[in-house]
Design a protein that fits this description.
Elements lengths: L2 E3 L2 H18 L3 E5 L6 H8 L9 E5 L1 E3 L10 H10 L6 E3 L9 H7 L5 E4 L21 E4 L2 H7 L12 E4 L2 H5 L3 E7 L4 H9 L17 E6 L1
Parallel strand pairs: 1-10, 2-3, 2-6, 3-5, 6-9, 9-10
Antiparallel strand pairs: 4-8, 7-8
Bound molecules: 2-amino-2-deoxy-6-O-phosphono-alpha-D-glucopyranose.
Amino acid sequence: MRIKRNTYQKICHVIASNIRDLVKHHDFSVLGLATGSTPIGIYKELSYMKDTDFSNTLTYNLDEYVGLDKHHSQSYEHFMNKHLFGKLTFHSNHFPTEKLLPYYDAMIENSKGIDIQILGIGTNGHIAFNEPGTPRDSKSRIVDLTENTIKDNSRFFDSMDEVPTQARTMGIDTIMKSKRIYLIAHGKHKKDILEKAINGDITPEIPASFLQEHPNCEIYYSE
Ligand code: GLP
């Protein structure tokens, strides 16, 4: 697999434009969306696209912390409202809430699957909250977060003790069923893990490495 390198702005522009083209040329589209600092630039680009009608587009977010109210400043629902949903109106936006989690995979399937899935990558190679050791056939479920992830994500909280220790996440199996995937890694601290995930062995120890088996996945890196 080839890693496409460019500036962060250019990558976000390309991905956002591809999303716009999908939405413009289809009566109905389904997006899989990620949180974290990396996709913010994509959402910024999308939010400028006022001439595009997203009212026939459904969104499914990848993950959400367990134990944080949706109004909590660090909940992923709050993040999405702030960066995208407060600026662009979609048909409907879905999160793996406690109530929806048992039906999440079936809901996505009933929506005819995800047309474009945006992914970031954790410094331990996780995608969504599928931590090292996750099998290829994993479905949407509750997971325990690793210490590495809790530490990485503590930068958004006042202290490490405040970071939730569990999350609800889309599974690898569901992610792999997406018709097209764009993974974006931003920053030198992601360089090594990205290289291992994309050009190393395919292993549950690096969940992002399963993407090597996806027929329509593009990998982007910016320093
Ligand atoms: C979180 C999310 C992931 C995301 C990762 C990287 O753990 N669950 O979906 O890819 O963070 O985040 P960042 O883009 O901030 O480095």
